[in-house]
Amino acid sequence: MTRETELPQAGRLIGRPDLTQAAAFETAQQGADGPAAVVALPEDSLADVGRALTRLTKVVLALYPAWLPEAKGITGPAGAGQAAVVEIARAMARRSPLYGPVLEALAVAALRGEKTARLPGVAQETIARVLGKLIRSAYGRPQLILVLVAPGQTDTTMRAAEHTALWLAQHLPANVWLCGPSVALMPHVSIQESPVRALEKAPEEQETDEPEPLPWASPLTGRPNPCSVIEQRLEAYLAAQSWSEGRTWNTSWHGGATENPILIDIMWEDEQLVVEIDGPEHRAPLKFATDRRRDRLLQLAGFAVLRFTNSEVEADMALVASQIERFLTQRRAVPKP
Predict the structure, then answer these.
(1) Burial of 156 (0-12, 13-18, 19+ CB in 10 A)
(2) Is the peptide bond prior to 173 cis by the omega test (within 30 degrees of 0)?
(3) pLDDT at position 156, please?
(4) Kind and range of the H or E element at 291?
(5) Which residues have a Cβ under 8 Å from the Cβ of 40 and sit 6 or more positions away?
(6) Before 42, cis peptide (omega within 30)?
(7) Which of 30, 87, 106, 268 is most buried by a 10 A CB count?
(8) How far from 72 is each of 37, 86, 90, CA to CA, in Å?
(9) Burial (0-12, 13-18, 19+ Cβ within 10 Å), 1
(10) Whole-angstrom distance, CA of residue 120 vs CA of residue 148
(11) How far apart are CA 126 and CA 226, in angstroms?
(12) Partners of 190 in the β-ladder
């Protein structure tokens, strides 16, 4: 079953009734629509356009300074920091079609560590265009995919969700993936299912290990995922340890011309150590099998792979770090040939 809605110079609205939001997020990151920045938003984001833009603003602020690279060395608003960032944002606006006041407000809010930005009197279409451009710019990718859950309570909520999703596809622009069975009742959604239905249900213990709250976003190369509290906390801990030098976050490793790149959470390349931080979605059958295949490829190339769950990192970060340190110490004690 396929229904196509053509949106001029915009993205598409795609229904994925066969996937949960977590599985759709993972699928999108693997390049189903080509190289793309992928963002997953909470279910209530589809209630109206304003709420969706507020959620996306939070993502843009978390991605700073990736979309304003000239501001990378400015660590806070004190002194001349804020004035410098404002000038950098103005310069960016002068060489692009983006609206300067929105760029300035976002840059200042991000510098201050705020979760939202005040944009009174600015048209939603203008805000959307800036947000979409900044997310794509942060990742250096031409496409943006939003992954959302289609509500199924009433006809009214479904109509509102469909309207919001169509609006986002047109004005960001983005490909909007709607997950859940109710998308079949939305007349403007293109229904797309995987050739083989994904096995979504993880073991029962998943219920005791909640995933990190939305929004989620694709990781940025070279830094912990700005939307992952777990990764941010672990990096803050590791940054204070002298033995942790040499680590690289969220880097791609290529196992060969016939293999897809593997995105690695943390790598110590010289010591050939890979550390993976697994949320509950890693216990779903297909994800579990994919992880084992990745581990084998890395191990055949000489890497050791240490896996920890979100819960382990959150419960005893010192223990997790000590086990990483122990491995690195042992590797560093072996003379290189």
Answers:
(1) exposed
(2) yes
(3) 87
(4) helix 285-300
(5) 21, 22, 24, 25, 146, 147, 148, 214, 215, 216, 217
(6) no
(7) 106
(8) 21, 13, 16
(9) exposed
(10) 26
(11) 25
(12) 14
Q: What phi-psi label fits residue 140: left (phi over 0), alpha (psi between -120 and 50 degrees) or beta?
A: left
Nearest to 33 by CA among 180, 173, 220, 184: 173
Q: What is d(CA 269, CA 246) in angstroms, rounded to the nearest whole number?
A: 7
CA gyration radius, the chain: 21
Residue bearing tokens 């700005």? 226
> Can you give the pLDDT at residue 213?
85
Q: For residue 126, which phi and psi values (nearest 5 degrees)? A: -70, -45
Report the run of H or E that residue 216 belongs to, with start and end: strand 216-217
Give me the count of residues in the chain.
337
Amino acid identity of 177?
Answer: W
Neighbour count for residue 107 (Cβ, 10 Å): 28
The two most distant CA atoms of the chain are separated, in Å, by: 68
> Residue 326 corresponds to which tokens in the numbers above?
């122990």
Residue 135 has pLDDT above 90, yes or no: yes
Strand-pair partners of 274: 267, 305
d(CA 52, CA 46): 6
DSSP 103-161: HHHHHHHHHTT-S----TT--HHHHHHHHHHHHHHHHT-SEEEEEEEPP-S-HHHHHHH
Tens digit of each residue's pLDDT (9 = 90 or more) over 229-272: 999 999 999 999 999 999 999 998 987 766 778 899 999 999 99
Using a pLDDT cut of 90, give the percent of the chain over it. Answer: 64
Q: Which residue, chain included where needed, has tokens 């073991």?
A: 203
Q: What is the pLDDT of residue 33?
A: 55
Kindly compute the dihedral angle of the four CA atoms of residues 20, 211, 218, 241, in this order, to the nearest 10 degrees: -160
Rounded Cα–Cα distance for residues 149 and 20 (Å): 8
Average pLDDT, the chain: 88
